[in-house]
Amino acid sequence: MRIVSLFLVAAVVLAGCSRGVESPGTSVNKFSDPILVKIADLQDRRQTDSLLVYLAHDSALYRQTAALAFASVQDTAAVEKLGVCLKDAAAPVRMAAAYALGQTVSQGSAQLLLDFANEKDYGVRAVMLEAYGKVAAQFKVIENPKISHDTITQGPAIAWSLYRAAVRNKVDTAFSFIPYTLLEAGTPMWGRLGAAQYFSRPTTPVDKYADRLVSAAKHDPEAVVRMAATLALKKAKADTIVQVLAGIVAAEPDYRVRVSAVRALQAFSIEMSWPALQAALLDKSLQVQVAASEVMIAAAAKPQASVIAEAARAAQHARVKANLYKAALVAGAGYDVLQEVIDLAKETADPYHKAFLLGALGQSLSAYTFLQEQLLAADTPVVRSTAAEALVSLNDRKDFPAKLKPVFAALYKDAINTGDAAVIGIVAGVLADTTLGYKEVVKDFSFLRAAREKLSLPRDNEAIQPLEAALALFEGRKAPAVKNEFNHPIDWALVKTIARDQQVRIQTTKGDIVVRLLVEEAPGSVANFVSLLQQGYFNKKFFHRVVPNFVIQAGCNRGDGWGSEDYSIRSEFSGRRYTTGSVGFASAGKDTEGTQWFITHSPTPHLDGRYSIFAEVVSGMDVVHAVEVGDQIVRIALVP
Questions:
Q1: Closest to 167 in 3D by CA, of 136, 193, 188, 141
Q2: Element (H, E) at 594
């Protein structure tokens, strides 16, 4: 059963909040209603004044839709009127207003949401509580004497409110006893998940609560709760936790929980975690192997260098092999290992395999000339950008010698002069870093101005951001905000042809994934996706990014995550949560979405309200879990 169906109604009703009534007659979706089109278009154009008018409309549906629109607009000028909507006679209107206030960070939003105790409807009250955690400057909702800590009613909502505050590092951890209580087996799944997610945040304490977290990690019936509780154990100080995590790696049936256990092992000494990590490298799931090899990069020490190098030589998968070589170099492996990596990089014809290996070389200063050669000679974007990233990572090494700074400055100039937008963005980020001191080394920075002239919005937004920061540093001024002007309006004629439950088949080299489009919640995003697939845009493109137990990502015209077209669309936030199999648009910030999209392996609540969700997987999650970097999309088509 999908997680979203298990949440309490109060937690998910917003996901369908814009569907207050069904579309009449034979229309395929609600946008046969011209007023709903008008409100959605005003939302897309971010026209606050015109939207505010609809908050006072006679129709509760239109008031609700307009209120929810402000969750995407996020204009503080609407806060006062949204506060009025919190008193609306219709609960869906109040709920939409509460969610929108939680998306609009301001002192006024927080103050209005603190009135949750006077809200009679449980669902609205729960949304108000969670929204408060998103905007509160200082978490104090528990101080309200009217609050109930009952685990069946208000407790789960408080856990999610605390989680939202913890994401922003704005929570008083003295309230941790509430999520701790909710980890009990009798608590509804939504509450247990909120509690486990709360403890998985970096700043929340776990030692006093480790007993129940261990129990949840090992025994909770829901894998999504187990994986969050397992990840939280990385902060526990007791040595016995290593054995708990090792047991999970060995016996847990769900690979996603095993990935969490592997990542948690990173917090412990390599000597303690080594046996479990070695076992993880032999796991039947490639995702677990990749996670283990990544942990070794972070945890490797000199005594393990030779053993890790041997493991790299024996590894069968290119990404795991490259990660292990990287770990060996981090641990201090000698020149022979470095040369092995260089030789492998020269030999492979697969651009992604080469990119993995070049990434490993970012740990060795001795490799910088080879990396420079690869960057300047590469005819594949992913090789070029990865070589740039590897070169840049050398600057972060503690042993980076000052005498090399002029050499790297010249190297960076050559890199930027390639005109490659990704390389420009990557290198500009280093030049903009005030701690690295390149302003004192680079006297003639006209090449930065020349690079800026080659880039344009909205296509190169992600590269322009660091480049503008670098220019501002060198010119002694404040960096301007990089913002896309409105472009690419919603194709309403296309939207009106897309059925509310339209399915799409994504054929990949690993199998088929079928997703359901959410046109009524994200019309602009869905129209963009459908238009692209009708053009055959996604066919033959690669999955360029796979993060174990997080996402698979595709849609990049370069194949390295830096690609986009010369347009952008706006973010759309309906209140739907990121669960297992959610499909969202990638972005470089609000209102910068384009062609890249991702599918989640599991719930990722830190993405909620930040990345547009426009579809959900209905079949083929086994394929989603099997996809790896370099797998290809064969074709994407609407299901008749």
A1: 136
A2: none
Least confident of 143-157, 424-438, 585-599: 143-157
**What is the C-alpha to C-alpha distance for residues 149 and 1, in angstroms, rounded to an integer?**
28
Measure the CA–CA gap between 132 and 308, rounded to whole angstroms: 47
Residue ranges matching CATH 1.25.10.10 in the chain: 3-238
Computed on alpha carbons and rounded to an integer, the radius of gyration of the chain in Å comes to: 25
Indicate if the pLDDT at residue 21 is higher than 60.
no
Q: pLDDT tens digit string along 47-85? A: 999 999 999 999 999 999 999 999 999 999 999 999 999
Helix axis angle, 189-200 to 154-167, nearest 10°: 20
Question: What b/e readout covers 603-617, taking b as 16+ CB neighbours within 10 angstroms?
Answer: bbbbbbbebbbbbbb
Provide the 8-state DSSP code for 593: B
- Any residues with CB less than 8 A from the CB of 43 and at least 6 apart, and which? 51, 69, 72, 73, 570, 572
Q: Where in the chain is the domain with CATH 2.40.100.10?
A: 492-638
143 is written with which tokens?
């101080």
If 0-12 CB within 10 Å is exposed, 13-18 middle and 19+ buried, where does residue 640 land? exposed
User: What are the pLDDT digits (tens) for 124-134?
Assistant: 999 999 999 99
Assigned architecture for domain 492-638: Beta Barrel (2.40)
DSSP 542: B
Q: Among 181, 97, 176, which Cα is nearest to 131's?
A: 97
pLDDT in tens, 168-177: 999 888 889 9
Give the span between the Cα atoms of 582 and 639, in whole angstroms: 18
* 3-238 under CATH 1.20.1260.10, yes or no: no
577 exposure class (CB count in 10 Å sphere: 0-12, 13-18, 19+) = buried
Contact, 186 vs 156, CB < 8 A? no
User: Can you read off the two tokens belonging to residue 78?
Assistant: 């609407």
Burial of 525 (0-12, 13-18, 19+ CB in 10 A): buried
Report whether 288 contacts 262 (CB < 8 A): yes
Q: Are 565 and 592 in contact (CB under 8 A)?
A: no
> Cα angle vertex 59, ends 56, 65, to 5°?
75
End-to-end CA distance of the chain: 26
CA–CA separation, 622 vs 617, rounded Å? 11
| Ramachandran quadrant class, 74 (left: phi over 0; alpha: psi -120 to 50; beta: rest) | left
Rounded Cα–Cα distance for residues 497 and 28 (Å): 7
Considering only CA atoms, which of 292, 342, 345 is closest in space to residue 320? 292
634-637 long-range Cβ contacts below 8 angstroms, 24+ apart: 634/507, 634/508, 634/509, 634/539, 634/540, 635/507, 635/536, 635/538, 635/539, 636/504, 636/505, 636/506, 636/507, 636/533, 636/538, 636/539, 637/504, 637/505, 637/507, 637/533
Give the CA count within 13 Å in the CB-facing half-sphere of 451. Answer: 30
Structure tokens at 602: 């599991």
Q: What is the pLDDT of residue 152?
A: 52
Distance of CA 307 to the CA centre of its chain: 34
pTM (two decimals)? 0.95
Nearest residue to 135 via CA among 83, 65, 174, 175: 83
